[in-house]
Amino acid sequence: MTQASDNGPAIGTKRRWTIVMVVVSMLDALVQTAYAANHFQYTGNDLGYVWCVLGLVGDLAAPFLLLRRGTRPVFCCLAAAMTTLLLPFGSALSLFALASVYARVRERRAMILCTTLVAICCVKVEVLDLLRPDDYSTWRMMFAKTGTGVDGVPAVVDTDLSAIVAVATIWTVATFAAAILSGLHMRNAAAAANANTRANSERDRADQLQTSLSMQRFADAVAAEAHDTLAHSLSLIAVNASALQAQAVRLSSTLRPTDGSGMPSAGPAADAMALAKRADEIRRQAAGALDEAHDIIDMLRHPQEVQAMLQPDSDTALTREALYEIIDAARSAGMMLDTWIDVQDLSSLDPDVGKISFRAVQEGLTNARRHAPGQRVSLEISAAKSRGVVILFTNATTAPVATVPMKAPTTSDSTNSGGNGLPGLKSRVQQAGGTCEYGYDRQNVFHLDVRLPFTPLR
Q: CA–CA separation, 391 vs 452, rounded Å?
């Protein structure tokens, strides 16, 4: 049977109402059982009296069926109805269970079955009560004269039976209707609460979409500005470097004839060719920087594709070939770089760790080239499963600076911090479960110490 979810009042309120229902049902059952037992004892019906005494156990146990009214309302209602039909119960238990059915069940056949059984229970309870003598009927006792029916005084009822039946009928119909209406009210309240929850959820989603839209507009504006300034400047650098290369080649060809090998051997012509080669390197580096700028601009314009863009690839993997290439490029640019490389098991290195490690090497070289030009730089790289990935940079500074100990926050250190580069690198390393320390020693030598596990902490 299909049942609706229980989305009524708060849990604490429902528990309190359930306790009230259990107590009321228990009292109602005990009253009816007591009147029936007294009647059977008075008439000498021993079997009926024993049946009522045994029914006391049901009076104390059956009301606890209401504890399941939220999860199994149909079972609770059917069990309550059968208990009421088989034992000298009142109708309160069945009516409470019927209200739960109307509040939580939507299957038509189940609702019709429960409604019919509870209606029969209500009729059975009232008919049996009205058929008993005055002293053993709750309805008759309600219309008994004052002072009768208590303390051994027989009840005296001078009200017409038809009036009592009419009142009992009105009461039965009213309580039956109240049970159905209260159940429908709980269903509507639950539906309203669900609708309100969905509305709040949709409002939150709309706010998130609006925020995302605003952020995307801002990102588009930044991307447009970057395209108009940074990308344009890099393009000009590449164009000018290409023009310088062409002029240097022409100058070399006019200064001195070659030695037969097709290349000038020495003198101004050789210097011109060296200048042409350096201009070609500048052009290639500017072209690479332009490609990276376009990638970043694309990330700003298409944030949904950022995750794919940020995945490790062959260009950012920590491999011997990639390390040799980036080191050779740094030396070709004039950096005095001493290296010590001891890498093992790179094929089993986690790709994310490999990318962070490669970016650490890039950042260290960029940092040294930018803030310590002309200084000798020492780079040590080691990688193994037992000790993880270790990257150590050391370089002197171009001018004396205030001593900053290692591990100190360097975002305030303008000499060698590289703006947001090193703090950003430190954040990424820490997210992968590693450590990143940088700062100056007492000789004003800058150190960058990056250590990463072979596998990041998830």
A: 9
Q: Specify whether the backbone of 457 is left (phi greater than 0), alpha (psi in -120 to 50) or beta.
A: beta
**Phi/psi at 107 (nearest 5 deg)?**
-75, 125
Task: Give every CB contact of residue 6 below 8 A, 6+ residues apart in sequence.
Answer: 70, 71, 104, 190
**Nearest partner of 89 among 35, 22, 32, 169, judged by Cα:** 32
pLDDT tens digit sequence for 38-90: 777 777 777 877 888 787 888 888 889 888 888 899 999 999 999 888 888 88
- Extract the tokens encoding 365: 């070289």
> Residues near 226 by Cβ (< 8 Å), separated by ≥ 6?
293, 296, 297, 300
What DSSP letter does each residue of 234-248 carry, written as one string?
HHHHHHHHHHHHHHH
Q: How many Å apart are CA 250 and CA 241, to the nearest integer?
A: 14
Burial of 80 (C-beta count, 10 Å sphere; 0-12/13-18/19+): buried
In residues, how long is the chain?
458
What mean pLDDT comes out for the span 343-350?
83
Compute φ and ψ for 393, nearest 5 degrees. -110, 140
Nearest partner of 117 among 143, 147, 97, judged by Cα: 97
Q: Give 3-state DSSP helix, strand, coil % of the chain, rounded to 5.
A: 65, 10, 25
- Tokens (6 digits) for 274: 């060296």
Helices within 44-91 (DSSP H only): 46-61, 73-86
CA distance 223 to 230: 10
Q: For the segment 228-247, what is each residue's pLDDT rounded down to a tens digit?
A: 777 777 777 877 878 887 88
Burial class (CB in 10 A: 0-12, 13-18, 19+), 228: exposed
Tell me the three state secondary structure of residue 261: coil
Residue range 130-144, pLDDT digits in tens: 888 878 788 888 888
Beta pairing, strands 388-396 & 435-440:
unpaired
Look at residues 145, 164, 165 and name the one whose alpha carbon lies nearest to residue 156: 145
Average pLDDT value for the chain: 80
Q: Name all contacts of 314-321 with Cβ < 8 Å and 24+ positions apart.
A: 316/354, 316/355, 316/358, 316/359, 317/351, 317/354, 317/355, 317/358, 318/343, 318/346, 318/349, 318/353, 318/354, 318/355, 318/357, 318/358, 318/383, 318/389, 319/346, 319/354, 320/346
